[in-house]
Amino acid sequence: MSSNLEIAANAVMAISIVLAGRNNVHSWWLGIVGCGMFALLFYEVRLYADVALQLFFIVTCAIGWLQWLRGNHGGALPITTVRPRRLLWMALSGIAATGLYGLMLHHYTDAYAPFIDSAVLVFSIIAQFLLMGRRLETWPVWLVVNTISVPLYLSRGLHLTALLYAAYWLNALISWRHWRRQRSAPT
């Protein structure tokens, strides 16, 4: 059975993520509220990497909010892409960081699924930085994160959260298409 906290966190974050996919700046302040709720929820079920991730998201939501408003020399930040070489570096760094953080959680905590939880953490951080910079590649990375997250949250009995992450997966796919169209539209 879902708790009131899980229901509220999911409702707030569903709105935030849809707004991000629609390229709407209001996604950021809603993200701050929702991430605070999820930090408490994940602490309750011993997904400590996810707690750390939510705290990271709170900070980056505040920064992203400002960047989207004023990041391009005082104007709105445009949608851009990342060079393939940099994407490769990000992927390899993400794999290495997942292994290192997973080992730390495995040896020093009672974390459930430390390596899978670490992959969610690390690649969410990468995706969040891409989102903060309004990079088109944020959406394929979110597809990977959400693919990993759904079974992890199901395994902890967070059925509503797993359902939300399945919806996030679909939203990432739709948002990727939407951002590609916005980027190629004449200004």
TrEMBL record:
Q: Which InterPro entries match?
A: NMN_transpt_PnuC
Keyword DNA-binding in the entry? The reply is: no
- Keywords in alphabetical order, please: Cell membrane, Membrane, Transmembrane, Transmembrane helix, Transport
Q: How does it sit in the membrane?
A: Multi-pass membrane protein
Q: Tell me the domain of life.
A: Bacteria
Pfam families from the UniProt entry: NMN_transporter
UniProt subcellular location: Cell membrane
Annotated signal sequence is: none
Query: Which is an annotated GO molecular function term of this record?
Result: nicotinamide riboside transmembrane transporter activity
Q: GO terms for CC?
A: plasma membrane
Q: Which residues cross the membrane?
A: 26-44, 51-68, 88-105, 112-133, 153-174
Q: Which family does it belong to?
A: Belongs to the nicotinamide ribonucleoside (NR) uptake permease (TC 4.B.1) family.
Function, in words:
Required for nicotinamide riboside transport across the inner membrane.
According to UniProt, the name of this protein is Nicotinamide riboside transporter PnuC
